[in-house]
Amino acid sequence: MASAALRVVEAHALVYRRTWRGSVISTFLSPIFYLLAMGIGLGSLVNRGAGTASVGVPYLTYLAPGLLAATAMQTGAGDGSWPVMAGIKWTKTYFATLATPVRISDLVIGHLGWVGVRMVFVSTVFVLVMAVFGAVPLGVGLISVIPAALTGLAFAAPVSAYAAWLNDDHGLSNLFRFGIVPMFLFSGTFFPITQLPGWMQPIAYAIPLWHGVELTRATALGIPTTFSPFVHVAYLLVWIVVGSLIAFRTFAKKLGQ
Fold first, then answer.
1. Best exposed site among 43, 60, 127, 250 by fewest CB in 10 Å?
2. Domain ranges, ordered by start, for the chain
3. Residue 183: CB partners within 8 Å, gap ≥ 6?
4. Mean pLDDT for the chain?
C-alpha cells in the first residue's frame, strides 16, 4: 500500500516537473506582493495607531505568519479541487491509475501525500520571502512550515472528498467564493478575531484556518495561543482524518470501485 501510494506521489512529481512554470507567480510572487501591499503598505498605517500594540510587534511581523497559514490553506484547497475533478471527469487519469495495482486508498493517500509535498515547498518559499522582508528570523520561520502544512492538509482532504462527490465544477467555484475567501478574511489572518462582532467569534473558532493561524503565529512569534497548541493540532488532524475517510468513499463511488 505504501509503495503504491508513493508511486502516485512520484507520478504527480513527474507531471509537476513539466508544468511548474504555471505556478511560479502564485508560489514566488504572491508572498512578495502580499507582504509589500499588506505588511508594509497597510502596515505603515496600522503601526501609527494601536493596531498591534497588544502583541508588541510591527504589523508586518504579525501578518506574515497568518498569511503563511492562509497561503497553505489556498494551496491545499486548490490542489484538492479542480485537479481531482480533472482526474475523474475531464482527463480521467484516475481511471487509468486504477487500471494498475494502485487501489482507491493508494490513490487518495498518494494524492494527499503530493499535496503535502507541495505545501512544504510553497510554505518554505513563503518563509524565505518573510525572512528577506525581516518579518521573522529564518530559523523559527522554517519551523512554522510544519503547522502551515498541517493547515493546508486540513483543507486538502475534505475539499478532495467534496470535489470527487460533485458532478460539475460549479460547486467548486461556490466553495471558493463563499467559503475559502471569507475564511481568508475572517480567521485571524489580518487581525485578531476578538475584533469581530461577538456572534462571529464562535464561528471563527470552528474554522480550521483560525487554528492554523494560531499555531503558525505562535511558532513564528512565540505569541501564546488561545487554546492549548495540542487542541489546535488535534482539531486540524480531525479534519485531515475525517476528510480522508470521506474521500475514500467519494472516490470509490465516482470511480466505480
1. 250
2. 2-254
3. 73, 207, 209
4. 90
